[in-house]
Design goal:
By secondary structure, this protein is an alpha/beta fold. The chain is built from 15 helices and eleven strands. It binds zinc ion (ZN).
Length: 381
């Protein structure tokens, strides 16, 4: 009882993660194996200074939440999860590069809309288990209040003017500025606004960002493409799964002051081990539900954290870096693969016809795996 009172008091004043000088070697090891494994971090990060930092945090660990839970409470009582349906969808889907279909009478596959459907299914199931769930967006609309028009000036600064003064060069220049302004608003600006609202307003115990992966389109035989006049989209064979948590900064990224500060916060606020646990639980649940093989990274922009958990990688993505709470990004399925495309079409057809979801509905499978992973990490059985 006394412990519960103390924990309750801590929640009122905000939690503080304090390290000690003795933990500098642990920080060095984390940098070498997870946060900057391919970079010369020793030249920019002072682990002794980092070990003196105390970082406040708004989120609670699974143990802290469980301490406040009564025996008769629901299994996820007390937990506050934020779900981020990745991207936007709707009329932004094409500009996001997150929209395709193989045949003209197929449904458009729009990642932003598919993951919103997953988030809504997962939300209902998590709430039924006692969790509080906040969706970072509830429709196919921007989270960022600033529209592309608000970024025109910045976009113009970032696009080089044409070398020649022809009308066609001016046309290309105008289109490049427009594309840059759209990107700044709906991609970078939207991610920054999501991270800001997580840290300042939602303040959940953990954030789960929902995505569906896609592979680069196979390049057509050039003569075929030119004969037909257009490149036919062809599905790929590889369908796989991977899960991401923060880490793997490059030398260049370590040179950016804001990234270095965000790294310091994430390294010292205790989110590292917590998101590794949640990431592992979600990876295991998704692997069991989908039976997909693990994706692989061919370049040094991500690192596999353990051979025991082949699905969990560390990668330096904006949301993973900026959200201070434990944050996990999910990438199950390759949408343009032979294995996933047909299932996505069936899921979209069922929804368009207002039919009951099929038992093997791919979005339901995804949502149920999210719930199973959250339950394995935070639940009380
Ligand atoms: Zn995505």
């Amino acid at each position: 009882m006394l412990l519960r009172v103390i924990v309750g008091y801590l929640f009122c004043v905000g939690l503080v993660a304090s390290l000690s000088a003795a933990q500098a070697p642990m920080l060095a090891s984390e940098l070498t194996t997870r946060y900057a494994p391919y970079a010369n971090w020793q030249s920019v990060v002072d682990v002794d200074a980092l070990a003196q930092r105390s970082e406040s945090r708004y989120w609670r660990t699974a143990e802290e939440i469980a301490l406040q839970r009564g025996d008769s409470d629901l299994p996820l009582a007390g937990l506050h999860i934020a779900l981020d349906p990745g991207h936007i969808g709707g009329h932004w889907a094409a500009a996001e590069g997150r929209q395709f279909r193989i045949a003209e009478d197929d449904f458009y596959v729009r990642e932003g809309e598919l993951v919103l459907a997953v988030a809504e299914l997962a939300q209902a199931k998590l709430m039924a288990l006692g969790a509080k769930v906040t969706l970072l967006r509830e429709a196919a609309v921007r989270v960022n209040p600033n529209s592309p028009l608000d970024y025109l000036e910045l976009a113009a600064e970032q696009v080089s003017p044409p070398n020649e003064s022809s009308l066609s060069a001016l046309w290309v220049y105008g289109r490049a500025i427009r594309a840059r302004a759209v990107h700044l608003s709906i991609v970078k600006g939207d991610l920054m606004e999501r991270a800001r609202s997580v840290n300042q307003e939602v303040q959940p115990d953990a954030l789960i960002s929902l995505h569906i992966n896609a592979a680069a389109w196979p390049t057509e035989n050039e003569s075929e493409a030119s004969e037909s006049g257009s490149a036919m989209l062809r599905l790929v064979d590889a369908n796989n799964l991977h899960v991401l948590i923060f880490g793997c900064l490059s030398d260049e990224e370590l040179q950016a002051e804001n990234q270095l500060e965000q790294l310091a916060v994430k390294l010292t606020n205790g989110s590292g081990p917590a998101e590794r646990l949640l990431g592992g639980a979600l990876a295991t649940a998704l692997a069991e539900a989908t039976e997909l093989p693990a994706a692989r990274y061919r370049r040094n922009n991500a690192i596999l954290l353990s051979s025991q958990q082949p699905y969990l990688f560390a990668r330096n993505l904006l949301l993973l870096r900026m959200a201070e709470c434990p944050t996990v990004l999910l990438e199950p399925y390759v949408a343009n693969s032979v294995g996933a495309y047909g299932r996505l079409q069936s899921a979209l057809a069922n929804r368009a016809a207002g039919r009951v979801l099929a038992e093997d509905d791919i979005l339901l499978e995804y949502a149920e795996a999210v719930v199973a992973g959250v339950r394995a990490c935070y639940g009380q059985e």
